[in-house]
Design goal:
The protein has 17 helices and 7 strands. The protein is mainly alpha-helical and 416 residues long. The strands form 3 sheets. It has a 3-stranded antiparallel sheet with strand order 5-6-7, with no helix packed on it.
Length: 416
């Protein structure tokens, strides 16, 4: 990099940080303000002849563009004019580059606080960008509507489309010669801003031979969008999303557990009511019928044995109430652990529901529940790839294996 380019980069950094005094001193000592060189930063940067690697060039001109976002607009206008003036054979392919570049130019303008400039640019090119292969693209129209909603820099990390666009790389298919023409133009005219966008957000798939035209070059609506039909989501973002594993809500197991809880609640309520009624009746008649006359003392009051029986009934009721509360809490925790299905579950027919309920009834209850059952694995040897089906009896004692020669072998697992 030339010394003048380095000085210009330092000057833009001082201006960005607001170091006005240091900026003035640096201008004088570096002679940047001599010879009437007072062009705007964006135009000044365009006149530099850089002979360094692309990374430093991108850094230099992106800093300059932050001071003058109009450089992005001018670069895009020049790219559009160049693509439209290309030879007919390559024009269709080269014009396909405009849409992804436009989206990221718009987002860059919003990031630098030039929302009005971005809105004007969208208004200028909206009708042209929506047209793909001679007809209107509904996918692009929808994406541009979402893009228009990105109005301030805070939206870049909050809006789904902007976030997905900035974190993804769209794919463009170009012929090798069209790609060479594009690179020759961008590098020859020092369009480092656009080169930076293409390097960061576009993946080129090159092919030999003639350029793809019409539908083969992206005229179909399916591949016209920036995110290639991913419904506003980047593949990388989807893969980075943690999996929400667990049983689905509103399944047969949930309805079965709810029904069992209701039956248990009814059973405990009946027992509690029966115990309370018996204790009340016994207390009212002095327990003479249920327990004999010895349940009353000489003064006609309840004896100690009767009082103990009444206290035992109350304790039993308290135990039942606690058991019912624990069952309800367990059922609530089970429902909260379920996962909502992303798509509605298909209704199960009665036969399938009955089969699932029978399996649930046959399930062995473990005590305590933390003790997981052991598992035994068996292999059928010498089947010679003729095994076609196999089933296990409901009591898990017998295994029936069917073979392609119509032979069925019955195995008693307990004897193995």
């Amino acid at each position: 990099m030339k010394e003048k380019d380095i000085d210009f980069l330092v000057l833009q950094y001082l201006k960005k940080k607001g170091y006005s005094h240091a900026e003035q001193v640096f201008r004088v000592q570096s002679n940047l303000d001599q010879a009437g060189n007072e062009e705007p930063a964006g135009q000044q940067s365009q006149s530099h002849s850089l002979d360094t690697d692309a990374g430093l060039q991108d850094l230099l001109f992106c800093v300059a563009a932050e001071a003058n976002p109009q450089a992005y607009v001018d670069s895009f206008d020049q790219l559009v004019a160049w693509a439209d003036s290309s030879l007919d054979l390559y024009r269709v392919e080269l014009q396909r580059v405009l849409y992804p570049v436009f989206v990221h130019v718009y987002l860059q303008l919003v990031q630098y606080g030039a929302s009005h400039t971005a809105a004007d640019l969208l208004k200028q090119y909206r009708r042209r960008l929506v047209e793909v292969g001679g007809r209107q693209s509904s996918i692009r129209a929808q994406e541009l509507v979402e893009l228009q909603a990105v109005a301030v820099a805070q939206h870049l990390d909050a809006h789904p489309f902007a976030k997905a666009a900035r974190s993804s790389r769209s794919t463009l298919a170009l012929s090798s010669y069209s790609f060479e023409l594009l690179m020759h133009y961008l590098q020859g005219t020092k369009q480092w801003l656009l080169l930076s966008i293409l390097n960061s957000h576009v993946r080129f798939e090159l092919h030999e031979g003639l350029p793809l035209l019409d539908a083969a070059a992206g005229g179909d609506d399916e591949g016209a969008g920036l995110l290639q039909g991913q419904a506003g989501h980047d593949v990388g973002a989807i893969n980075a999303t943690p999996l929400d594993l667990g049983l689905l809500r509103d399944g047969t197991e949930d309805s079965y557990a709810t029904q069992k809880l209701q039956l248990e609640e009814e059973r405990l309520s009946k027992q509690s009511a029966a115990g309370t009624s018996a204790a009340a009746a016994a207390a009212e008649d002095g327990f003479t019928e249920g327990f004999g006359d010895d349940m009353l003392d000489d003064g006609g009051a309840l004896s100690a044995a009767a009082q103990q029986a009444s206290a035992a009934a109350k304790r039993l009721k308290a135990v039942r109430d606690r058991a019912l509360a624990a069952a309800k809490a367990k059922h609530k925790d089970m429902l909260e652990s379920r996962r909502m299905p992303m798509i509605p579950l298909l209704p199960a027919h009665d036969k399938l529901k009955k089969s699932q309920r029978d399996d649930l009834e046959a399930r062995v209850q473990l005590h305590p529940p933390d003790n997981l059952p052991s598992a035994a694995f068996f292999s059928i040897l010498n089947s010679q790839q003729t095994l076609t089906s196999m089933t296990v009896s409901p009591d898990t004692k017998l295994v029936a294996a069917g073979f392609s020669d119509s032979l069925v072998r019955l195995t008693h697992l307990a004897l193995l």
